[in-house]
Amino acid sequence: MSPVVVPEDSAWRTRYFVVVAGLTVLHAFLAAIFPVAGDEAYYWDCSRNLSWSYFDQPPLVIWTMVPARMVLGETALAVRSPVIFASLLLALFLLPLVRRLGGGAREATWAYLLLHAMPIYFLGNFYESTDTAMITAYVGATWAAVAIAQGSRRAWWGFGVACGLGFLAKFPAVLAVFSLAPALMQREVRKQLLTARPYLAALLSFALTAPVWIWGARHDWDNITFQLRGRHQRAATEGLEHLAGFVATNLAGATPFLFIAMMIAWWYSRKESNPGWAVFRVAVATPFAFFGLISIWKHVGGHWGAPGLVLGIVPIVLISFPGRRIWVTLGTVMGLALSAVLTFAALNPEAVLAAYRKARPEARTPKGIISMIGNEEIAEEIQRRLRPGEVMASESYTNAHLLPLLVRGEMPSTLAHLGGMHGFASLYWTRPERWDGVDVLFVTERTQNDGKLAELFEECVEEEPIRVFRQGELAREMRTIRCRNLLRPEPAFSRLPRKASF
């Protein structure tokens, strides 16, 4: 009997799914052992207070955390389950996208592996963030837009669903709409606009975003106002300086070598006759162009170009260009090394602290290192100090949400809005009358809010701080202020109106 010969693409398809499965297990393992950060704890607390949407975040990632918490409990793995699922979906979208652009399972495998050489993607696979889900939807929408350009009518449905769910993950997903422009330049695609399908798909997409509008209508459109005015504050540095910072962040997130390789491959891809490539090039360029332009006069997150970085890996494996092997090799080595350093630092903050103090004993320790030290001890001590009926509060939304998570959600807590711009979701969970007369154990590392606390409460008395020692030296100190009888709950503890009394 002659041996069975497996076609190359079939063999590579098997390899692809083995690679995806193996890396998904790695994502889950790292998600389980990494210390939880403040943003992640914020999403966790939101998932304990389900709503149509939230003040500064749409609801999709928060909603999908709930079933994982039911199975896994209040654990880091449960908190990060949505990002692990989103990363898996991205891998499943990547293969058909690569095929649409002329590649196969072999190229998709190398593209998926190369993605993990970018620190922004490697670390983003096990850090709970709305960005990862949005990027997954953006990749799905790009796949659908490429299919539309190639004549697929059914792809309108996929594009509508991807944009709608992407918007429910993070609002910039709607930038995928720009990728349709090259497709609509084709007469055959424009003919499809004479049918009902594109408009029904758009209606479906809008219907999927309904939770955001429902929440907004119930709360005077605070969520939309925040996105349009509050989130995008005027940059501290103007013009080209801030644009340079945005570019530098993307260079670091992908490594300069892979970023340059992306740009070269993107440029060479203009020679491709496949109509899907024109759509793809716009999809890659849109996040960089849009947020780069915004950054000239408004502050933007450096990582907001990430959808373009993720898609930018694809032409590297599909398009030949001079020096490709050198750029990719250097980028892979640099990216993996940087990811390894960041992973070690996150898993060993005390070693980083000790090394920093040894190298610069006279310098002030950076706040980022301090914030990773002793959170579990602080949470347990606060829980021990809380009296019956008291609530732990902090002006830091990291403290307000992370410390309760570290004691499995058994500590009553809330944010006290005494300044800042983010993390206000909890101010919409409880009406102000619920806070009348409440006693609070206020936890802070600052002193500038003492006067504000004195105005809100009948009495505030500072107690012995919580101190964390490492190797016989004070590593961190947390102030505790016991505040009695809350007199003015709004707006520091609630942004909701009081119930009308008749």
Short structural description:
This protein is α/β, with parallel strands linked by helices and 502 residues long. Helix content is 59%, strand content 8%. The N and C termini lie far apart (90 Å).
Topology:
Blueprint: H1 8-33, H2 38-47, H3 60-72, H4 76-79, H5 81-100, H6 105-115, H7 119-124, H8 130-149, H9 155-169, H10 180-184, H11 187-192, H12 197-208, H13 210-218, H14 222-230, H15 240-254, H16 256-268, H17 275-294, H18 306-318, H19 324-347, H20 349-359, H21 367-370, H22 375-385, E1 391-394, H23 397-406, E2 413-415, E3 440-444, H24 450-456, E4 457-470, E5 473-486
Parallel strand pairs: 1-2, 1-3
Antiparallel strand pairs: 3-5, 4-5
Give a verbal description of the structure.
This protein is α/β, with parallel strands linked by helices. The chain folds into 2 domains: 8-343, no CATH class; 374-486, no CATH class. The chain contains 24 helices and 5 strands. The protein has helices at residues 8-33, 38-47, 60-72, 76-79, 81-100, 105-115, 119-124, 130-149, 155-169, 180-184, 187-192, 197-208, 210-218, 222-230, 240-254, 256-268, 275-294, 306-318, 324-347, 349-359, 367-370, 375-385, 397-406, 450-456; strands spanning 391-394, 413-415, 440-444, 457-470, 473-486. The protein has a 5-stranded mixed beta sheet. Strand 1 (391-394), helix 23 and strand 2 form a beta-alpha-beta unit. The longest helix is centred in the N-terminal third of the chain and has 26 residues, at 8-33. The model is unreliable at 1-6 (pLDDT under 50).
SSE ordering: HHHHHHHHHHHHHHHHHHHHHHEHEEHEE
Structural class: alpha/beta
Q: Are there runs of 5+ residues with pLDDT below 50, and where? A: 1-6
Strand order of the largest sheet: 2-1-3-5-4
Helical coverage, percent range: 55-70%
Rg result: 25 Å
The total count of strands amounts to 5
In the residues, how many domains can be counted? Answer: 2
Q: What gross morphology would you assign? A: globular
Discrete helix count: 24
N/C terminus separation: 90 Å
Q: Major sheet: size, sense and barrel closure?
A: 5 strands, mixed
